[in-house]
Amino acid sequence: MNIKDSVALVTGSNRGIGKAYIEALIQKGAKKVYAAMRDTEVYKRDHSGFANEHKGTVELITLDVTNEEQAKRSADLASDVDLLINNAGVAIYQGLISAENLEAARQEMEVNYFGTLSMVRAFSPVLKNNGGGAIVNILSIASLVNFPMLGSYSASKAALYSLTQGVRAELTEQETQVFGVYPGPIDTDMAAGVPMEKAPPSEIAQGTFEAMEKGTEDIFIDPFAVQFEKEYKDKPFGYAKQFAEMLPESIS
Ligand SMILES: NC(=O)c1ccc[n+]([C@@H]2O[C@H](COP(=O)([O-])OP(=O)(O)OC[C@H]3O[C@@H](n4cnc5c(N)ncnc54)[C@H](OP(=O)(O)O)[C@@H]3O)[C@@H](O)[C@H]2O)c1
User: Fold this and answer.
1) Cα 80 vs. chain centroid, distance in angstroms?
2) Ligand 1 pocket member 151 (CB < 6 A)
């Protein structure tokens, strides 16, 4: 998929990796970029310079991915999209057993799994009408191996991994390419408390588009993720053990 002249929509684009995707899309010459986020008013206030500078290219859309009606409405509004980037996500640092109740686990499933599911369902006909296009799901290396410090988040990202495979198969006929991105620790609000080296969000955005242009479906970009991909096939259980050892006392 070529990014130049594409019409893209990015969820959760007000900060972190989503914001980096918006910037990289502009840099790469996308024709139009729908920046979807929960609160466009706060964004307009805090980023008025950026919003004005790219007024012709960037359009803000109010979208909470857990609201199915809003997902459908965004597909009606952005009916020219040929690239959907499902980036919105939430991580609540809780253990599966030590969490007080199921609230965090349900919220992570609601945003990371069901939110992405309603977006791909809403946008599949749009992508079909626009020649097939592409979907990019932002997963995580935690989709493949559970990080016990993020036990329920990892489970929701594992569900998203399965969704990505299923959607890829279902949309082959309409020629929609489905990409999965598996970052390691990235320097955003989400990973603020993670005691590991972190790559900048811009590296993920630029690396995604370079990989897409080469036709790579499953994309590992930052140094941790690249090393993980190399070793994962040989030692998936080794990684599970290594990540288990990183469990902070507050959770174990
Ligand atoms: N940072 C990492 O180390 C890392 C590693 C692997 C994967 N990822 C994945 O990368 C993606 C982006 O994360 P990030 O690191 O950029 O985190 P972040 O800085 O915390 O940003 C999360 C984004 O998701 C949005 N969001 C949360 N719930 C939403 C909802 N219900 N509807 C719409 N938007 C919602 C947030 O919007 P608000 O501002 O309104 O809350 C925010 O824009 C996520 O899917 C995350 O799981 C991150």
Assistant:
1) 21
2) no
Per-domain boundaries in the chain: 7-244
pLDDT of residue 238: 76
**What is the CATH architecture assignment of 7-244?**
3-Layer(aba) Sandwich (3.40)
CB 150 within 8 Å of CB 193:
no
Separation CA 120–CA 126 (nearest Å): 10
Residue whose CA lies nearest to ligand 1 atom number 45: 89
Asked if 153 is an active-site residue, the reply is yes
Cα(203) to centroid of ligand 1, in Å?
16
User: 202: Cβ below 6 Å to ligand 1?
Assistant: no
Beta carbon of 66 within 6 Å of any ligand 1 atom: yes
pLDDT at 219: 98
Which pLDDT value is given to residue 111? 99
> Which residues of the chain have a pLDDT value below 70?
248-252
Q: Are β-strands 177-181 and 58-62 bridged in parallel, bridged antiparallel, or unpaired?
A: unpaired
Over residues 200-244, the pLDDT tens digits come to 999 999 999 999 999 999 999 999 999 999 999 887 777 778 888
**What is the CA(87)–ligand 1 centre distance, in A?**
6
